[in-house]
Amino acid sequence: MVARALAMCVLLATGLLLAGCAAEEPPPDDLPLPPEPPARVQAARQPATGPARPRGNEAEPTAPPSEAPATVAEPPPAPAAPSAWRVARDGTLGCADAAPLRLLRQGADTPPRLLAEARAAGACRTTFRLNAWALEAVEADLVRLRLVNGEALTLWFLRADVLPP
Question: What is the pTM of this model?
Fold first, then answer.
């Protein structure tokens, strides 16, 4: 009787195993194709041999290229980059309100919930060295900087976290 029950369990387990290993149906073939990539636009190339000659009567003498007036347009000089403040490290924290900034920098003894609330209340943002800033105000160990190369944004930073121009 025990042998018969054991044989039934083995058959049942084998049946379940085979049912679980059944081949899955392939996905339907009616999926839409991805969009075609946009065509590349190639820049028009100009010949590097000198100015183009006008078409017309070939019998007319034309001035040789060495006697032609040089009319090469030089690009205007680049404007001098304004002196910009930068953060010392990527991931530096700046806040729209100066009060939460000091609390956030203490961090070790402050519960994480209070740190998250202070960050939200102070409208704090993570900044990067790529950003350029202009000085607006200085207050003890804090500086207020305005973002130069992006959206209108003014943040307070700890003086130790920024590099003057």
Answer: 0.48
